[in-house]
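Hi L.,

As promised, Polymerase:
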Amino acid sequence: MVVKSKKINFILLSALFLTIIYYFLGTKFFLAAFIGISGLLLVIYDIKIGLFASAFLYPFVPDALGLIMLLSMGFFVLLRAALYKEKFTVGARTVPIAIFAFIIVFSTITSIDPSGSIRDLALNAAGISFLFAMTNSIKTKGELNAFISTLLLSALVVALLGVMQYFTGVEMRPEWLDTENNTDIAVRVYSVFFNPNILAEYLVLITPIAVGITWHTKSMKKKFLFAASTGILLICIVMTLSRGGWVGIALAALAFVLLVDRRLLLLGVPIILGGLAVLPQKVVDRITSIGSTVDTSNLYRIKIWQITKEVIRDNLVAGVGFGYMPFKETFEKYIRTMPIYHAHNTYLEIAAEIGIVGFIFFMLLLLATLKYDYTNLVKSEDKYFKYLGAGLFASIIGIMGHGLVEHFLYIPRIIFTFWIVLGIIFTAIKIEKIEREKEFTEKSTETIEENKTEREAITE
């Protein structure tokens, strides 16, 4: 009765609020408020509506709206707990996340520019909030699979937009390419991410998950659809011409093969040779330039890394403060002719921002997540969790590889994607455990019933 009363009060207040909006601000604001309140009511009714909608929409909406959507999901879990007396849990395996969260909060407070650190703290808080909402709201294999399918559908739309750009043409910014050594490259696609390297980071995180789902799917019709979608994601990665993205996806592929079937390594050589034979020459040239010492993009990164090491050395324990703004301000004190935003290396950037202690716990977060994924999902007897776990493991390996030449915790949408992938891992682990215990209980019950039947037969 109390819950019902709260619902009625909320609806009455909403109606009153909408009436005031319409009377004073007009139809446009009324419609916006109506859509917002309707969405709020739907999420309160079933938070999975908000989770699924956020997973699909966040690549396409403004970063501020994406922040609000993801951050609010954790709030709604707590709100539902208050309204419906639902329980929420914080698993023991999330301890590395909690430690990392504490470190970035502390680093924000002690930052040389706390206001600049707030931006990155809020973005990561939104990602962690969404992870918390996922682990407490998605409770069955079916719901998890539906969430992942929604995420992959969104990624397919992103990739299709990128492929279209390759044929329609898009503006090329000069800093995206060494034009002296790549005169035949006219297009690098970026879809909705405004930068091809950022699009590549997104695809490196998502594509291995698509591979894992494709690998598990038994229906030939569904397998064809998933395989075709995965192929589009891979084509889009190629079209970004992001060498870091290619290295990341190659490492992800290697990790997936090692986890699923090592015999597939025998196909590696012919696939590579065949790929080099059919790929456009400009793509082959980009691949061969990965370690080039004359490529201006490579030299630019090396110079940044050298200066970043000096920043780390001078701020070894606590760092300069969480987020790109404190790093940027500090970096430009060392050299004023290189106005950069990040170190183009996640590990150097993290060490510079939050110090050596923070860096150690960041690495522990990544390694612990890989360990939990491997021991609980990849080793699962359930093929769905096994192949999904292999895809998720490969996703983390891929982005860690890409992180050698880019900072993947810089752009809001990649920060969100990173935490969503971790959210899938921890949610899948929780569901796999429930499914395993349920199966064990059912088998135990069957055994007891069989023994009981045998005893009754003997007695008779």
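Residues 217 and 429 are 19 Å apart (CA to CA).

Thanks again for sending the construct details.

K.
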